[in-house]
Amino acid sequence: xxxxxxxxxxxxxxxxxxxxxxxxxxxxxxxxxxxxxxxxxxxxxxxxxxxxxxxxxxxxxxxxxxxxxxxxxxxxxxxxxxxxxxxxxxxxxxxxxxxxxxxxxxxxxxx
Length: 111
Prior knowledge:
This protein is 33% helix and 30% strand. The chain has 5 helices and 5 strands.
């Protein structure tokens, strides 16, 4: 499943996204906006988190998307804690693309 906006493609995350995600999450400015982020990010924990995304999709408990711009991963957005047809939306983006409305654009598409 892919979602497309005018500028972005949102696709399910895959384990190969871990390296780029680690780069983005290693930025203190990015991590400070996240409830459970550590600096530096824990490679094993993040690898395990990404590895579990497909199972979350199958169970219907979370839907994790890679946010891509021109084919490059710029962040992650998700719907998580899904129960009774409702869930929470979250996202994090590479600081290099802040201020361009990508987070809002991705969140609107998820809704």
